[in-house]
Design a protein that fits this description.
The chain is mostly helical. Helix content is about 50%, strand content about 5%. The chain has helices at about 5-25, 30-40, 45-50, 90-100, 105-110, 115-120, 130-135; strands spanning about 70, 85. A two-stranded antiparallel sheet has the order 1-2. The N and C termini lie far apart (about 50 Å).
Length: about 140
C-alpha cells in the first residue's frame, strides 16, 4: 500500500474544509465573505483554522482615538502590552493588527476607532484575505 503524497492529502483536506465552511454558511454560523476568505490559499493555515470576525458597521467602531486602552488579556502578546498608549504609533498598529486578527466583533467595536483604522489601513494590518473582507464590506478602506 502506498502513502498518499502531501498534495493529495491537501486536496482532500481542502475539499473537507470547503464542505465544512459551506455548511457553516448555510446554517448561518459564518458569513459568506468570511468563509470565502478562510478558503483562500493566500490565508495562512493558522488563520484559516481559527477564523476571524469582521464588524457589520464601521461607523460603530467606538474605540478611543487618544489616551490609553486596556487590552483584553486574550489580545496581549509580545508586541501588544496590557495597556496601549494611543500616542505610540507602533503600539497602536500592533494593537489594531491583534484586534483585526483575533478580536471578536464586540472587541472590535469597543477597541477600534474608525478614523484611526482608516489612517492605519494602508500599513497592512492583516493578511490579504482578511483585509479583502473588510474592504468588501467597507469600500472606503479600499487600497485602490
Amino acid at each position: 500500500m502506498s502513502t498518499p503524497t502531501p498534495r493529495k492529502r491537501d486536496g482532500r483536506a481542502r475539499t473537507v474544509r470547503q464542505v465544512q465552511l459551506q455548511r457553516a454558511v448555510t446554517e448561518g454560523r459564518l458569513a459568506p465573505d468570511i468563509a470565502q476568505a478562510m478558503n483562500d490559499p493566500a490565508l495562512s493555515r493558522w488563520r484559516a483554522s481559527l477564523g476571524f470576525a469582521v464588524v457589520d458597521d464601521i461607523d460603530r467602531l467606538a474605540g478611543p482615538a487618544s489616551g490609553t486602552i486596556r487590552v483584553p488579556q486574550a489580545l496581549v502578546r509580545e508586541a501588544v502590552p496590557p495597556e496601549v498608549d494611543l500616542s505610540n504609533a507602533g503600539e497602536v498598529r500592533e494593537l489594531y493588527r491583534a484586534v483585526l486578527a483575533d478580536g471578536t466583533a464586540e472587541q472590535q467595536y469597543g477597541l477600534l476607532n474608525a478614523g484611526l483604522l482608516e489612517r492605519l489601513w494602508d500599513t497592512g494590518l492583516a493578511e490579504g484575505p482578511v483585509m479583502g473582507v473588510w474592504e468588501g464590506r467597507f469600500p472606503r478602506l479600499s487600497r485602490g
